[in-house]
């Protein structure tokens, strides 16, 4: 699969949260703002299933050998906890989670590639072809992130759409709710963002 094909095939996983669950999360966020720290644990339990489902999709898509869906969820939540984040509402929380997952994946990709490059490049491996394929995908992930950072400077909303859909695995309706735009606008923004990213990746090919 070529680098640009990734954006053609990127489809967010089907949303599984019920209206009751979303309402419960929103109420618990209010409790957090009122000083109920235990509410964070309750929120985590409510959203864990969806987080794990999204994490499974992301790990399969990015083929990161050093991270599992469970560890991705755990690292994401720990990153948020360390940042002492504050979410205004359920959609804001979803946006923060999507960003945190993105950075966890990027950090793991950098760590994996740095570790491998520190080893003897002439060491033979029975799975050398597989390893090269994995390395290429990790490098592509970093290239995509660099292109996304360039998109932020051009149009920050388009970059948010990519972050929420490509890294956060969110549905168009969810993205529209978070950004305060219509589904039609989300689709138009996604097309624009994908075209920009593909052109950037074509001009900045993955390093061999």
Automatic annotation (TrEMBL):
<protein>
    <submittedName>
        <fullName>ECF-type sigma factor</fullName>
    </submittedName>
</protein>
<keyword id="KW-0804">Transcription</keyword>
<dbReference type="Pfam" id="PF07638">
    <property type="entry name" value="Sigma70_ECF"/>
</dbReference>
<dbReference type="InterPro" id="IPR013325">
    <property type="entry name" value="RNA_pol_sigma_r2"/>
</dbReference>
<keyword id="KW-0731">Sigma factor</keyword>
<dbReference type="InterPro" id="IPR053812">
    <property type="entry name" value="HTH_Sigma70_ECF-like"/>
</dbReference>
<dbReference type="InterPro" id="IPR011517">
    <property type="entry name" value="RNA_pol_sigma70_ECF-like"/>
</dbReference>
<dbReference type="InterPro" id="IPR013324">
    <property type="entry name" value="RNA_pol_sigma_r3/r4-like"/>
</dbReference>
<dbReference type="InterPro" id="IPR036388">
    <property type="entry name" value="WH-like_DNA-bd_sf"/>
</dbReference>
<comment type="similarity">
    <text>Belongs to the sigma-70 factor family. ECF subfamily.</text>
</comment>
<dbReference type="InterPro" id="IPR014284">
    <property type="entry name" value="RNA_pol_sigma-70_dom"/>
</dbReference>
<keyword id="KW-0805">Transcription regulation</keyword>
<dbReference type="InterPro" id="IPR039425">
    <property type="entry name" value="RNA_pol_sigma-70-like"/>
</dbReference>
<feature type="domain" description="RNA polymerase sigma-70 ECF-like HTH">
    <location>
        <begin position="23"/>
        <end position="202"/>
    </location>
</feature>
């Amino acid at each position: 699969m070529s680098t640009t094909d990734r954006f053609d095939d990127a489809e967010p996983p089907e949303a599984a949260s019920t209206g009751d669950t979303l309402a419960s999360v929103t109420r618990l966020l209010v409790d957090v703002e009122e000083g109920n720290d235990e509410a964070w644990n309750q929120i985590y339990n409510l959203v864990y299933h969806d987080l794990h489902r999204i994490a499974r999709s992301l790990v399969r898509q990015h083929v990161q050998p050093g991270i599992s869906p469970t560890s991705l969820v755990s690292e994401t939540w720990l990153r948020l906890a360390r940042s002492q984040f504050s979410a205004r509402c359920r959609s804001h929380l979803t946006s923060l989670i999507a960003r945190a997952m993105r950075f966890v994946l990027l950090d793991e990709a950098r760590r994996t590639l740095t570790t491998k490059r520190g080893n003897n490049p002439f060491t033979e491996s029975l799975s050398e072809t597989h390893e090269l394929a994995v390395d290429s995908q990790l490098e592509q992930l970093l290239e995509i992130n660099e292109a996304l950072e360039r998109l932020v400077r051009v149009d920050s909303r388009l970059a948010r759409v990519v972050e929420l859909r490509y890294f956060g695995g969110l549905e168009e309706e969810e993205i529209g709710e978070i950004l305060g735009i219509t589904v039609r606008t989300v689709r138009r923004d996604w097309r624009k963002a994908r075209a920009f990213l593909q052109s950037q990746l074509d001009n900045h090919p993955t390093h061999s």
